[in-house]
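Researcher: I'd like a structural prediction for the single chain below. Treat it as a standalone chain; there are no partners to consider.
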Amino acid sequence: TMVLVPVMPYGLVQLGALST
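Model: Treating it as a single chain, here is the predicted structure.
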């Protein structure tokens, strides 16, 4: 799925998950 999902949105989701 990483390939299908862009780097920008994916990074934001990762940061949000880690922040939470």
